[in-house]
Amino acid sequence: MANISANITELKQLLELTPASHNIMLSGAHGIGKSEILTEFFAEKGMKVIALFLGQMSDPGDLIGLPNKDEETGKTDFMPPYWFPVDGKPICLFLDELNRARPEILQTVMDLCLNRKLAGKLLPEGSRVIAAVNYGDQYQLTDLDPALVSRFNIINFKPTVQEWLLWANKADVDPRVIEFIEENHIWLDKEPDAKEGADTGLDKTPDRRAWKRVSDIIKGNEHLTNIHTKIISSIVGPKAASAFLSSVSARKMISGKDVLYNLDKVFEKLKYYQLHEMSVVNDGIFRHLETENIAAKDTDKVKKNINDYFDFLAKNKKEAAAHFANLYVGQSYPNAVKFFAKQCPLLTYGLIAYVKSIK
Question: What is the 3-state secondary structure of the chain?
Fold first, then answer.
C-alpha cells in the first residue's frame, strides 16, 4: 500500500484534526481493532458509532430503507432505516467492508459520501462518514470506483505491537499471552513463515482479536490440557498454538511487575538474561507503570526497586540500560514518565543524561 500509515495514537490525532465534512477510509487487515478504536474515540465525545457491514447487504434497501407511499402527496418516499438518526444528533457512520459491497450498494454510498444524504434525507450536521477496507489476495473483494475512492482521505491503519500490549494489560488479558507476544512480536498478526499475500482460505492464522479469545479460554487454568491445545489451535492455527504452548511450558519470563515489586527474588535470574530478554522486561516495567496505579503503601518499595534495577543495568547491561533510557524519552508511556518525574527525580536526571551520553 502506497498510502500513509498511522498507528492508534496517530489515528486519534488525525480524527481530531480532520473536519467532519471529510470522509476517511481505513485500510488494513481484519482483527486489528478498527471498529473498537472508532467506538472508543467517538464515545468520549458523546457521539454514537453506527457500524454497517456493507459486505452483508444484498439490496440498497438494506442501507436506505424501504419505499413507502405518502398518503397525503401520493408520492413514494423511503422510510428511514433502523439506524438512521431521527433525533438530530450527529453520528459516526462506520461503513465496514466497503470493498466487499455489491456494486449497487456502492452507488448508494457514493451519494452518502458526496452529499451526506440517503434517499433525500440528510445526516445531522457534524456527522462523520468513515469506511474500512481489507486488502490482500486472501479476501474476496470488489474493485472500487476511482470516483468513490476520491471522496475519501485514505489511511493505512497499522497499530503497533506495543499499543496492543498496552491494551492487553488494561483488558486483563492472560499474562501468558502477553508474555508470548512480548517475546514474539511477529506472531501477533500472522505466522512468521506465511507467504506474503497467500490465500489461506479456511486455514487459521493469528490476529489480535484471536489472541484475546485465547486469553478467554486459558484464563484461570494453570495447567493446559490437550483439549486446551485443540481449542487454541482452532483460534490461532496449529503453528501459532504450538509456538505459544512451547513458550508457556519452557519458562516464565520475568515480568515488569516482578521487578517493581519483587526485585530481590528475581535479581539472580536477571543476571543471565540476554539483551532481547532485558528489553522485554524493560517494556514490561514501563507498561505496568502506564496502566496501573501504584498503591501508596508500595510506592517506596517500587521507587527503590526501580533505582536499583537501573543501577544494575548501567553497571552490567549497558545496551539494556540504553533501551530503558530511550523508553523514558520516547512518547509511548506518558503515565510512566510522570511517575518517574514525581517519584524518582534523581533517576529522571540520570536517564536524560544517559540518553545524551549515547547520542
Answer: CCCCEECHHHHHHHHHHCCCCCEEEEECCCCCCHHHHHHHHHHCCCCEEEEEEHHHCCCCHHHHCCEEECCCCCCEEECCCCCCCCCCCCEEEEEECHHHCCHHHHHHHHHHHHHCEECCEECCCCCEEEEEECCCCCCCCCCCCHHHHCCEEEEEECCCHHHHHHHHHHCCCCHHHHHHHHHCHHHCCCCCCCCCCCCCCCCCCCCHHHHHHHHHHHCCCCCCCHHHHHHHHHHHCHHHHHHHHHHHHHCCCCCHHHHHHHHHHHHHHHCCCCHHHHHHHHHHHHHHHHHCCCCHHHHHHHHHHHHHHHHHHHHHCHHHHHHHHHHHHCCCCHHHHHHHHHHCHHHHHHHHHHHHHHC
pLDDT at res. 193: 62
Q: Which pLDDT score is estimated for 71?
A: 72
Helices 226-236/208-218 angle, 10° precision: 160
Residue 127 near residue 93 (C-beta atoms within 8 A)? yes
pLDDT for position 277: 86
Q: How far apart are CA 302 and CA 63, in angstroms?
A: 55
- At 227, the amino acid letter reads I
Give the burial class of 113: count Cβ atoms within 10 A of its Cβ; 0-12 exposed, 13-18 middle, 19 or more buried.
buried
> How much is the pTM?
0.68
Question: For the chain, which residues score pLDDT lower than 50?
Answer: 1, 137-140, 196-197, 199-201
pLDDT, position 199: 45
